[in-house]
């Protein structure tokens, strides 16, 4: 992966953004368009019949018909620049290699901050928003040791485990990346209580999203966000999660993407331990300390 430096948006990226602004066009539709046309610039000027030949359904074609005339690709890039948001497409060398490996990777990523080649050695740390004293204690301990060992910590900026993981990585002078289920414009950073934390992460690491600026944090966006957290990571560590939890969706994504899953065990009397304890029963690596993960991933105490 080539390092991504702020302000280096490729000219062709504006058409990725333009198509992404059309409701009804997601990763699958955009993949079809990319396969059919030499460039998205050509696709943007194509007529509906040509777009139909890309395999788009009637509903999507209707959305293109009514929304495309209202979108000015150059003006939309200016909006991104004003918000301090850059754009990486799947055709760019800076696009994370691990993420390319997943089923239907996001064709574009919005970013505030920088990506480094060292981010290829990363771990997702996820868990409940309603953590216990146990979660408060164990999350910073393990995450800080992982960050000091050189792993980039990936999480979702949510309250609870995510927040503690990001803060622990920063405190250990490590790298951290937050993947959001909303646009990266300041108005839609979620949760708003982490607005200041998001600014620090954008300076010391990166904020990422596949959603265009202006996208609100709708509930249906977060399962999509979770697959990116898993896709960017060598593995996922689950710390405290009830039986039904977004953290477990991320763990399932990791398994589907052939990534390692780690879990911190907890009391059988705690609902927050049901998730990780069950993952361990199903074969996840039991984790007591950071070295359990480093050993399993065959990493030295400090990555190259």
Per-chain topology:
Layout: H1 13-20, H2 27-36, H3 40-44, H4 48-52, H5 58-67, H6 73-82, E1 86-89, H7 97-100, E2 108-113, E3 122-127, H8 133-148, E4 152-155, H9 161-171, E5 176-179, H10 195-204, E6 206-209, H11 221-231, E7 235-239, H12 246-256, E8 260-263, H13 274-281, E9 285-286, H14 290-296
Parallel strand pairs: 3-4, 3-7, 4-5, 5-6, 7-8, 8-9
Antiparallel strand pairs: 1-2, 2-6
Helix pairs in contact: 1-6, 8-9, 8-14, 11-12
The level 1 CATH classification of the largest domain is Alpha Beta
Biggest β-sheet: strands ordered side by side in the sheet: 1-2-6-5-4-3-7-8-9
Distance between the termini: 14 Å
Beta-strand share of residues: 5-15%
* Count of discrete structural domains: 2
Task: Outline the low-pLDDT stretches.
Answer: none
The proportion of residues forming helix, as a percent range, comes to 40-55%
